[in-house]
């Protein structure tokens, strides 16, 4: 009588296993254990940020390898070529027109002001960007994000770039301090050692841009920033007056096929690195889905709107990722088990009763022979064998009444056979 139970259980197991195999086709692969990030120069702010992220990701079992580069433009090229997985880029950096791999932004990380330093003796001091045209200006190395941004802003002001024929000096900072340059452009965060050194140099002043608030209306990825008087050094009143600046945002950018779990992990780690307040940002203002010049990735948009999932907030990365992947397997399990739970009792009942009915079939054939041929030693022996076989059956209590009915009917036929023998 255990065969019906085993048979029904085997069918249920086979159905659930089939559902699992089908669902497994839709389970995302596990996230890779290694990532490659393009940063910048080994002594730059991007590389230092990359080192901090690598340390945080290592705690979750992910190895982040940093690849140095010449800057944002090179980062954009190697990311679009699929040579790296993620990159740090300056807002406004243009991608290749036909990239091999689609690229999306994950977040902006902090503001990078355009610092326009001029020598202290410069007179008159320029008030607008178009006034830079006749001056000796360092716009940044060719191919750098600084050069691209400055050139775009100059063109917005009607400056012909061909008129800026001064070659880029090997040491622009030293040339500015020595008086061989009039203006030096630097795009970098406030914590940049280069920026800090220039801000502290008495031979250098910071240019004020009165129309800074107008530029975001022409390029949405730009931001108008303000540096209050004395923000650098109150004792020396540096700067002596408020300075209005134009800024872009440093962006965390990734290939479109980056595993969604790694997108979440990068965004969860970023606030530890960039969430502190600064000259131009409030606490926890970054990472942000704003100030971007590239489309925001779908997974990143979901994360910015909802934050980490419940599992990600209470479990280690590997455990949360594993459970998220296996949830797909649970759906067919529930879809199959719920109907099976309801279907199994009647199927089991039918299987048990079908075996009892087969004994009734044997009993009816013996009774038919009794009516036609009369009782004999062979028939009595077969009735007795059927009775012994049924007595050895162990049934659940819920089916005992049917078994006892069968035994009483066997006894009835056996009694008739004995009376007529």
What tags apply to this protein structure?
421 residues, D-Maltodextrin-Binding Protein, domain 2, 12 helices, 46% helix
Task: Please give a structural write-up.
- It is a single chain.
- By secondary structure, the protein is of the alpha/beta class.
- It has two domains: 2-12 and 340-420; 34-308, Periplasmic binding protein-like II (D-Maltodextrin-Binding Protein, domain 2).
- The chain has twelve helices and nine strands.
- It has helices spanning 2-24, 45-58, 72-80, 145-156, 172-178, 193-200, 260-274, 298-306, 310-314, 317-373, 377-391, 400-420, and strands at 34-38, 63-67, 86-90, 103-119, 137-138, 183-187, 204-206, 223-227, 243-255.
- Strands 1, 2, 3, 4, 5, 6, 7, 8 and 9 form a nine-stranded mixed β-sheet that branches.
- Helix 2 links the parallel strand 1 (34-38) and strand 2 (63-67).
- The longest helix is centred in the last third of the chain and has 57 residues, at 317-373.
- It starts with a helix and ends with a helix.
């Amino acid at each position: 009588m255990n065969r019906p139970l085993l048979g029904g259980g085997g069918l249920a197991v086979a159905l659930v296993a089939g559902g699992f195999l089908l669902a497994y086709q839709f389970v995302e692969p596990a996230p890779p254990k290694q990532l490659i990030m393009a940063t910048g120069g080994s002594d730059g702010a991007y590389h230092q940020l990359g080192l901090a992220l690598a340390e945080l990701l290592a705690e979750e079992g992910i190895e982040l390898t940093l690849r140095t580069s010449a800057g944002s433009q090179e980062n954009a090229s190697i990311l679009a070529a699929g040579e790296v997985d993620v990159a740090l880029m300056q807002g406004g950096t243009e991608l290749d027109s036909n990239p091999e791999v689609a690229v999306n932004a994950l977040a902006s990380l902090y503001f990078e002001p355009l610092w326009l330093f001029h020598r202290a003796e410069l007179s008159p001091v320029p008030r607008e960007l178009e006034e830079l045209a006749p001056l000796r200006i360092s716009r940044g190395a060719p191919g750098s994000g600084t050069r691209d941004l400055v050139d775009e802003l100059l063109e917005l002001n009607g400056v012909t770039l061909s008129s800026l024929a001064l070659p880029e000096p090997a040491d622009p900072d030293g040339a500015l301090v020595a008086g061989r340059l009039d203006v030096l452009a630097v795009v970098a965060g406030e914590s940049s050692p280069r920026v800090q050194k220039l801000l502290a140099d008495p031979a250098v002043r910071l240019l004020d841009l009165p129309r800074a608030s107008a530029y975001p209306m022409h390029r949405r990825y730009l931001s108008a920033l303000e540096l209050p008087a004395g923000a650098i050094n109150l004792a020396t009143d540096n700067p002596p007056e408020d300075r209005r600046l134009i800024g872009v945002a440093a962006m965390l950018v990734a290939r479109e096929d980056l595993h969604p779990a790694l997108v979440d992990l990068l965004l969860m780690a970023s606030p530890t690195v960039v969430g502190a307040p600064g000259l131009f940002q409030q606490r926890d203002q970054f990472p942000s889905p704003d100030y971007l010049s590239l489309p925001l990735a779908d997974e990143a948009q979901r994360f910015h709107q909802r934050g980490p999932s419940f599992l990600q907030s209470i479990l280690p990365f590997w455990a949360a990722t594993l459970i998220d992947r296996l949830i797909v397997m649970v759906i067919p399990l529930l879809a199959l088990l719920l109907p099976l739970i309801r279907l199994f009792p009647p199927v089991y009942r039918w299987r048990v009763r079908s075996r009892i009915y087969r004994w009734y079939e044997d009993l009816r054939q013996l009774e038919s022979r009794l009516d036609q041929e009369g009782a004999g030693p062979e028939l009595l022996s077969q009735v007795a064998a059927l009775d012994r076989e049924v007595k050895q059956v162990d049934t659940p209590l819920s089916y005992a009444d049917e078994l006892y009915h069968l035994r009483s009917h066997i006894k009835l036929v056996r009694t008739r056979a004995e009376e007529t023998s």
